[in-house]
Specification:
Blueprint: H1 7-28, H2 33-47, H3 55-62, H4 66-78, E1 82-86, E2 94-98, H5 100-120, H6 126-147, H7 152-155
Antiparallel strand pairs: 1-2
Helix pairs in contact: 1-5, 2-4, 3-4
Amino acid sequence: MEHELPYGLRFSLLSRFFKKRLNEQLMEKELTGVQLTVLKELERLEDSGAAEVNQRDLENISHVTHPTMTEILKRLERKEFISCRRSSTDRRHKCISTTEKARQLRQELSEMDEAVLSELSQGLSRRQVEQLWEITDVMLHNAFKCYGKGSEEQSDKNTCKEPAGI
């Protein structure tokens, strides 16, 4: 039966399984997928050298409303994954940063990710797993290039007509 599944459905099923397994493990940490997404975006902004990250930055990246982001941030702060303070450059904004607990979570998530991949890769040789990485790297590069979400150089060469939901 698996041989008859279209490629898109195969990737979709793998993605859903991956998310389901990670969500099960996140529930133990009392985190939701949405909260994790916001936390990861915050970490990404911090890693990129942003002097201050404010709520509006996270709203724009996550495409959520101000009240929704306010609730997400309140919960993350209550769970001690973030700290909020008034911005030193603009007192109207909250400056948001990750805590040590969030940085520890990053390592744990990496380990969870590896565990789920290992579960899905049972029966594959080490070389096959390496090939999977190589193949998906090329596919992601092509997707980013096609839909203008890659580097500046790539987005100028957008060869696709419509983004089809990426």
